[in-house]
From TrEMBL:
Residues 130-251 form the GFO/IDH/MocA-like oxidoreductase domain. The lineage of its organism: Bacteria, Candidatus Azamiibacteriota. This is Oxidoreductase. Coiled coil: none annotated. It holds the Pfam family GFO_IDH_MocA. One of its GO terms (molecular function) is nucleotide binding. Residues 5-121 form the Gfo/Idh/MocA-like oxidoreductase N-terminal domain. It comes from Candidatus Azambacteria bacterium RIFCSPHIGHO2_01_FULL_40_24. It comes from the Bacteria. Gene3D superfamilies: Dihydrodipicolinate Reductase, domain 2, NAD(P)-binding Rossmann-like Domain.
Length: 335
């Protein structure tokens, strides 16, 4: 089986991480890096042995099978569209676009071209969250009553000048940046096609920006499960928390590796007659087993992407998952 030849468009932080993943995976190799910033390309040439270009037209090369799109948000969907039109499979960084219209167009285009179109919702592949999903699917905590989550960081010096704080490039603030991950997880855990109630409160508390640095989100499912999400770029100490409470117990995940701390999964079952909780089970995903590296989730997602290309089967997370998340975000921005 031939290796999938990969191009990466956008060589900022996520572009570097995806290059590492694509070139380390057995069934893929990095053939091309595209970025409009010549300084980035010069730096990349010191580390990577592949082709380099500043023009998207290079994607039309027959030497490219798949494209990773890792640009600022406003360019994600247009570049995805261009790659699909040129017959390339696409893994697009989240949020995959800035509105539902462009996501819908790319979903249809990928289907018409019989191409794989996946989205970088890598949090699904963090080991603690993946194990929590298995517990929920097995019925371990029964019917879900509520989900509560906090996800935040404190930026860094000069953060207000980065593209994420420029609406003309980002298309939105924290709601679109980290919020899209949590909304995707809510859909994933609850198996919802849509939420019947959606409400959000946005705040710009610190950074000099015209977009929000905090978002507070409340969702309610058709089965009356309530989801409470808070994302922030004024959370001075990085934090990730994901809690699920059901009729028979609870599951809690803290940390994502790296600066977010070691991933920890805790759960307890509750006797529905006596109300007593059984012994708490705690699982750590520590650095000695490689879980401290946040990119382990990218490797897992990449494996799904390559499997989709090779098998012709559709795997998630894909365009439809991005569409679900963006539909919630659009409604909150329109409030």
């Amino acid at each position: 089986m031939a290796k999938t030849r990969v191009a990466i468009v956008g060589f900022g932080g996520m572009g570097w991480r995806w290059a590492k993943v694509a070139n380390s995976y057995y069934w893929s190799c990095l053939n091309l890096i595209i970025d409009s910033d010549e300084k980035k390309l010069e730096e990349a040439k010191k580390h990577w042995k592949c082709n380099f270009d500043s023009d998207l037209k290079a994607l039309s090369s027959p030497e490219i099978d798949a494209v990773v799109v890792a640009t600022p948000n406003i360019f994600l969907a247009p570049i995805t569209k261009y790659a699909l039109q040129n017959g390339k499979h696409v893994l697009c960084e989240k949020p995959a676009g800035v509105n539902t219209k462009e996501i819908k167009e790319n979903i249809l285009l990928a289907k018409c071209q019989c191409l794989s179109y996946m989205v970088g919702f890598n949090h699904r592949f963090h080991p603690a969250l993946a194990q929590a999903k298995q517990l929920v699917s097995s019925g371990f905590i029964g019917k879900i009553h509520f989900i509560r989550s906090v996800y935040g960081h404190g930026g860094r010096p000069g953060y207000e000048n980065e593209w994420r704080n420029k609406p003309e490039l980002a298309g939105g603030g924290e709601l679109l940046d980290q919020g899209v991950h949590l909304i995707d997880l809510a859909f994933w855990f609850l198996l919802e096609g849509s939420f019947k109630k959606i409400h959000g409160t946005l705040a710009s508390n610190f950074w000099s920006s015209k977009i929000e640095d905090n978002a507070f989100i409340i969702l309610q499912s058709s089965l009356e499960a309530t989801v409470s999400l808070h994302v922030s770029s004024t959370q001075w100490q990085k934090k990730f928390l994901w809690e699920i409470y059901g009729e028979h117990g609870f599951i809690a995940i803290e940390g994502l590796g790296g600066n977010y701390g070691i991933e920890t999964l805790r759960y307890r079952n509750r006797d529905t007659i006596t109300g007593k909780l059984d012994k708490e089970e705690i699982f750590y995903f520590p650095p000695e087993y490689g879980y401290e590296d946040p990119d382990i989730s990218l490797f897992s997602l990449w494996g799904k992407f390559i499997s989709s290309i090779k098998s012709g089967k559709e795997y998630g997370p894909g365009g439809s998952d991005a569409l679900n998340a963006l539909s919630v975000i659009e409604k909150i921005y329109q409030e």
